[in-house]
Design goal:
The chain is α/β, with parallel strands linked by helices and 233 residues long. Helix 5 links the parallel strand 4 and strand 5. It contains seven helices and seven strands; from the N terminus they run H-E-E-H-H-E-H-E-H-E-H-E-H-E. The chain folds into two domains: 87 residues, no CATH class; 131 residues, 3-Layer(aba) Sandwich (Rossmann fold).
Length: 233
């Protein structure tokens, strides 16, 4: 209150300043009111310090440490929401313009019904679709290429060799190359086929590719990751 009276005393007569939940106007006698409130605040602070020292182990630590920490956390949360609202506001400068190009990448582990369902969805999103297969065996890669010639509907196929028999790392390196060549205002969507088994614990038997891709590419601008669920009866 002492600070509030100080602000009131520095206003010009007839000037109003709106604050959250109140309106400030100049009032005569603000000096005395500021002194009274300031003296009360001083006395309260002295009592609080004495109480905190003498009763710290008996529960005063809650007032000294816990409550201020909680207030600080609440202020941080409030500031986060304010900054988020500021960045999402349509009134700010530098709003991102429309998308000029949309490229879709379809990672796959083989040619099957789940892949074909994801392919149909990817072709609905864009005409620029690239299927990507990470190969750890040349014979399997050649077999997949033959199947793709039949079922791939003319979509380009990129086969990445993985000499260390890893699946995620070669694909991420390929995405980095695509990002390095990405045009301005271009969005890349990665469509991941996802099996949905009838029993939840069957998920433990399948690699959660979409989840790992989201974690690896979460902070990459211009990338959208979506999964196409395929229910396994």
């Amino acid at each position: 209150m002492a600070h509030r009276w100080w602000k009131i005393g520095h206003l010009q007569p007839g000037v109003e300043v709106r604050e959250r939940g109140s309106t400030l106007q100049y009032q005569s006698g603000w000096t005395l009111k500021m002194f009274i409130n300031g003296f009360g605040a001083f006395c309260t602070a002295v009592v609080t310090v004495i109480f905190a020292i003498t009763k710290f182990r008996d529960g005063a630590w809650i007032v000294v440490i816990l409550i201020p920490s909680m207030v600080a956390i609440f202020f941080m949360i409030h500031r986060h929401y304010k900054n988020l609202a500021k960045h999402l506001s349509l009134k700010r400068d530098g709003i991102r313009s429309h998308i000029n190009r949309h490229r879709v990448i379809l990672p796959m582990s083989g040619v099957h019904e789940g892949t074909i369902a994801a392919l149909h969805y990817a072709r609905l999103l864009s005409s620029d679709v690239t299927a990507v297969y990470v190969s750890i065996d040349s014979a399997e890669a050649e077999s997949l290429r033959q199947k793709w010639d039949i079922w791939g509907e003319g979509v380009r196929l990129v086969i990445l060799d993985s000499p260390y028999r890893t699946l995620l790392e070669p694909f991420l390196e390929y995405i980095e190359e695509i990002l390095a060549q990405r045009q301005p205002k271009e969005v890349i969507t990665i469509v991941v086929p996802q099996f949905v088994p009838r029993r939840w614990w069957h998920n433990l038997l399948h690699a959660q590719t979409a989840t790992w891709l989201r974690l690896a590419l979460l902070f990459k601008p211009g990338i959208v990751i979506t999964d196409v669920p395929y229910l396994v009866e």
